[in-house]
Amino acid sequence: MTNPAEQALADLHTHAYAAMKRGELSEASDAFERLLTQRPDRPYYHYMRGLAHKYLLDWPVSLRHNLRAIELSGELDEAEHWNAAIAATALGEWAQARRLWTACGIRVPEGEGPIDDDYGIAVVRLNPWHSGETVFVRRIDPVRARLLNVPLPESGHRFGDVVLHDGASTGRRFDGQREVPVFNALGRLVASEFQTFVAFVSCPGPDDLNALLAVNAPGLGYTEDWTGSVAHYCMRCSYGAPHRHDREDDADDWQVERNLGIAAQSRHVAEALLRNWAAQAPGRSVDAIETRECPPPEHQEGHAWWIGPDDDENEDEAAEEAPDDNAATRT
Predict the structure, then answer these.
(1) DSSP conformation class of 59
(2) What is the pTM assigned to this prediction?
(3) Where do the domains of the chain lie, and which CATH numbers do they carry?
């Protein structure tokens, strides 16, 4: 006959993992904490509580439990080291982060302080618990990256932001030359100096658009043609899961009315850019310039937004866990 105390512990174990799978992170954390009061030396309970707090963006607790899991484990477990390194990076504990990356066999440049190197191009999914807009980035660290696109204002992010991203890829995206990994962003670490201006222009043809996109000027970060680069993908597309759509838009039809995202240090810079461009050829016009400051969407629980199609769950389950069936992405 099963011991009642052992059965209660087994039930709590099942409850903790089920809550984690549902994305009920606070509930899972509480359950793992209760398990640890009875089994304080179980490394996988420390790891799981650290994992829950990673996705809660609670970095001190995540770091503490991952380090304890590492201490209790008899052999190297990369998952614990990676999550501890992510938390140390989020907290700016650079010596700790460097030690952990090195233990994982990750190349880091010599020195102290923040890691600043070239880890290649990737894609990050901003606010993955919400709309999940995807943008291209340059990775400067194993889990830090600088945004290369102009995000939509609703994302609460800007061109040039440095964001923290997860260590596990949740898909692949073609960057024009090769397939690159897609990571979930876990928050902004350094805010960009650039503001986002939304411009609505009339552009007679591709040459007129290219003339605008090619301009370099002091105080100007990047000009992006959202009409051509931003698509609202279903979540399957966002995660790179193969499937077919019944209808594809005709990409050969030129749209005269274009929507632009402009990263500039001031409105004066954006207005001067568009005014000079419009004056240089007939048919060009600027219909409006708007700016909107939005905070990032609040962190949400209740869905396992970190699950990608390559995880244990299948693609359909991953898509069903997503909070929105359309995500803005760069093509």
Answers:
(1) H
(2) 0.88
(3) 4-103 (1.25.40.10), 121-192+296-330 (no CATH), 195-242+254-291 (3.30.70)
